[in-house]
Amino acid sequence: MKLFFAFLFGSVLGSFFGVIVDRLPLHQSIIWGRSHCTSCQHLLSAFDLIPLVSQIFRKFKCRYCRAPIPKLYLILEFSCALTFTLAVSHKLTSIQALFTLMSILLSAFDSRDHHFPLSVWLFFTLIFMISFPFHLVYLCWIVLALLAERFSLNIGSGDFLWFFTASFVFDFFHQMLILEIACFLGIGYYLFTKKRNEIPFIPFLTIAYLALLLVPQIL
Ligand SMILES: [Zn+2]
């Protein structure tokens, strides 16, 4: 029962993450205002907002205008639900779960709009800085982020900021391992999709981080 409620609470949080991803770039309130279909603007009823269930039941289509609902919302709800379930079953520590949630949310922004919301990163990172031991060496990542803003380093400043927060979870060796795995995945994605535009890198960093975290436990 405890795991069921963890899954349920996680899916609700994932649904809220979907609201943040939708509204933050438009400078709309993430607390106030009822949810609506972004295609026909019809207000959604309680039955349209049940995490995971509504989307699957409606076959990923708005029931008013039949416009397709992006799978991103389902991925957000499921991954957050899974994170909470793993945390409650002690497969993830609180610091790992918190970093996973931050990475999921930043991945959603990056994959959809190639956007790195500084406010979201700051919100989570301040919690890390207040709650967990902080070492000055972590600031190297901030310096690299500032350099990436000034010069073209072929890696976004947001990716360096992600590593700054990752420093609270993994040591430098493991961070380099994450970078290697993410680069490998990114190259695979580039070759497979032949997409010539900018590749969102935070999702690959997140997958690499989760692989490093969970695979040793599974094996
Ligand atoms: Zn609609």
TrEMBL record:
The Prepilin peptidase A24 N-terminal domain, residue ranges: 8-89
Keyword check for RNA-binding: no
InterPro entries in the record: Prepilin_pept_A24_N, Prepilin_peptidase/N-MTase
Residue spans crossing the bilayer: 72-88, 94-109, 121-148, 160-192, 199-218
A molecular-function term among this protein's GO annotations: aspartic-type endopeptidase activity
UniProt keyword list: Membrane, Transmembrane, Transmembrane helix
Gene Ontology biological process terms in this record: signal peptide processing
UniProt xrefs under Pfam families: A24_N_bact
A GO cellular component annotation in the UniProt record: plasma membrane
Name this protein carries in UniProt: Prepilin peptidase
